[in-house]
Request: fold
Amino acid sequence: MLGKYYVTNVIFGTIQDMRLTILFILIAFICQAQNITIKGKAHASHIGKEVILNDFTDYVTYQITKESSDTIDKDGYFELRLESKITKPILISINNLLGKLYVQPNFTYGIYFPEEDSTANHQTGTETTVDISVYGKDSTELNALIIDFNKQYNNLFINAGPQYLSPAKLNNMLDTFLISCKKRYALINNSYFKNYLEYSFANFFSNTSRGRTFLNKQFIDGKPIQYANYEYMQFFNAHFKGYLKAFASTKNGGNIYNSINAFADYKDLQNQFKTDKSISSDVLREFLILKGLIEFYYSPDFDKHQVQSVLEQFYRETTIPDHKSIAFNMLQTINQLQPGAPAPDFTAMDKSGKMVLLSDFKGKYIYLNFFSNESESSQKEMQKIIDLKKKFNDKITFISICLDDSIKTYKSYLKSNLKQDWIILYQNKNSTAKQTYNIKTLSGYFFINPQMQLAQSPAMKPSEGIEYKFNALFRPRKKNTIIGIR
Reply:
């Protein structure tokens, strides 16, 4: 089930914020030109920062794509846009803060992005969930309905008290809760919300040990696979997690390991899985093979190169568009940032305001790192690079990317750290470095060869001994003194 999602009512008392009231009169207005528009205001602590609208490529790999961004103006306002033909959840982030919002085609939304919790851990750089407020909604708007449902679900356990709840007791409570929800939302005609309810309960029942036969009959058998529905896929992924690997451990599926590790043969894998008579749908069977291959890639029981080979065969041979798209996303993911793969190019801003490309420095080894003023550990690593740069400056180009939200902080850092005299760039609104190198925290390290290939990905930090790698790479070769051997 989705994480709990709540709305905080915000009351604005200043004349300036009358603009916000006028702005959100347009909420729920059908906007044919922009498809989906999000007009927002952020807490004053976010002024000048970049706000990003992210979307999922699919609900199997869960890769994130940046769809839109804006810089929050001096009054806290921003605007984001998205083109979509379906209703779905999107992610809105400011730095490491992340909020979820459900959007449907041809709507304009008004939102409020809150301040960061002062107790948040700034050192780890991990993402922190915040609650986005939606303005202009009524009780039948999708986000309001989801909030109301989650509130009813929370109350279910609050009213139960601290007593131990056996699986049988939990199932009885959920059955009663399901009946009450059908009554509560009987007049709601929102098809996405109805689906949300159904597969929220599917997840509930899955977590309370309802049998696989019951879950299959109730939520899987005879129903189309909803590849583009978040709640359905949350249930589907949990329900079939490890399914192909479990089958490979049975008497009938024992040859699946050979199909992959020994032969890397997709056709053979298909034939082996056909012996599972519990799967009657060819489409479902193929999808389970795809999901299994994605899981196998990260399993120590399977050879990564063999799994990738089978995935490539799958991609070429499948005739189901959704399967082909997911297989492509997976192949793109495992090929990206692997040692030996091309180092992805990106743009970032230098201290003069000029946008530069990583590829501008091709022809020399590059030690690339990401850092932030909010991360004490990454700043300590920056200090260690000073000595590395002195020793290897003629052989390695050192490039650092500042991930701070404020350009003032970036420039202040440069003035305060004059000994760090290598190339230090800034991740501004138009920069693509952070996204390209999939940086999720406030630091990251990569070593790139002169041909713009990833020699180490991720690379060792200075404190982890990257200097030993450099020494081994650039150690002068001794001339051979044995006669007759060059």
Summary: Residues 165 and 171 are 10 Å apart (CA to CA). The mean pLDDT is 87.
